[in-house]
Each structure stands twice: as structure tokens, then as C-alpha cells.
Sequence to fold (269 residues):
Amino acid sequence: MMSALVEFRGVGFAYARPAERAGRAFAMRDVSFTIERAEIFGVVGPNSAGKTSLLRLLTRVLVPERGAIMLDGCDLATLRPWELARAVGVVPQEAPRPFPFTVEQLVLMGRYPHAPRRFFEDATDAAAARSAMLATDLLPLARVPLDELSGGERQRALLARALAQEPRLLVLDEPTAHLDLRYQAETAVLLRRLNRERDMTILLVSHDLNLAAELCDRLVLLRAGTIARVGAPAEVLEAGLLEEVFNCRVVVDKSASGRPLVQLTYERG
Fold:
């Protein structure tokens, strides 16, 4: 039986909007859901639904105005920065450019939370970095500068850095957004393998509904800062609900794996 690793309890948050700007500021209202241990959990929804805000709240870039976010039974607000970084590894969409480090140097940066007052890595850090590079098939590229890598290789390097943190929760923000089909498929296979072989809990934020459907055990569909639905992909990616949330016509079939397959419908003029 699974138990929750993360729990959002009635979380509310609003961005302040300058007085000179018209319109209502974005707000999240009464957001409640759990992420179970060892599951792949997806966050989906249209632009401005709150996907990025939810991620920032979970990584404490933002602080809730109401409610609480629990991590392994502890209120996120009580954790020191390095404690949070040990527990949650974040994989951004891409590394900044230029970024004058090799793959190995980048991956070793993931060890900082384990010794925040130490300036040099030890044998334990080196072993963890090597394990992370092995898991992501990057060991042959350890000495290669990041700026010489392809997009897919750079994404794997960012993933390896997060794995070197040895987190309980791996958070990925649009991990395939800038990748071609081959690297999208490789990334999906790698994440599923990490989940199955390491019982790693993964939170995936994605615009790609079909990637989320194939990869995730459960989804939360956001709409304007609120939850439209939480559940298995087949429960959340329902045509009527998607049309309501995204304001467009869709057809939902089944993929070869039996998961939902979302397709837009186009009217010919």
C-alpha cells in the first residue's frame, strides 16, 4: 500500500499585481492533493493554469499564503534550505548558456546539499556522481563541456545532477520541451526505469498530455489556479473535461498501450 510523500493541504497563493496594471492577479485557491511514494505524478493544464506556480511552491521559491505543504510528514516551511535540497531534486528545462563546466562538474554540484559548508567533494560524493552518470548513460561524456552536448545529452546531465542529490522526490519541469522525438522517447524510458528500479517518486510538469498519459500513474489537471480533477490518466483526460478546460475540441482515443490518446479536431473552412 502506498503512502503520501507530498501533501498539499488547502494551499492558497496570489501574486501581487502593480496598481498600474489592469486585470486580476493570478491566484491559487484551496489546492489539495497528494503525491504517493514511488509513483509518477503529472501536473497538466493550459497556460496560466498554475503549473509553474505549483512547482515553485513545492520547491519553496514561493510561500503559501494559506494552507500547508507536507513533505514526508514535515511542513515544508520548517525545513532548512539544504534539507529541502536533499529531499527534492529539480530538473529545469535547460541549463543556462554559456555554462563553462563539464558534465562531471555539473553532476558534482548536486552533492552540495550533503555538505553545504564543505568546498571540495569527497569519495562519497564522487561515487554518487558516478552512479548518477551511469544511470543516465553519461559516464563516457563525463569530461565533455556542457556547451558541446546535444539537447538530449544536456537534459540527461541536468537529470544526473538531480540524481546525485539522492532525493526522495524528483521534479521535472517540461523535460521534453526542447527535444526531438528520439530524445523524448529516451527521456520517457529513462524516467520510467528510474521509477521502477529505484522506487523513485517523480513529479512531472508538462504541456504534453500524451506524454503525461503514457508516463504517469496519476494526474492533476489545473484550471485557473484550481483543481479540475485528480486521478488516473483515463479519469482526467476525458474529452468533455478537456474541452471545458482548454476551450477547444478534442478527441480522446486509446494508444497502443491502452492509455488515453488526446487529439485536436480541426474544422475545415
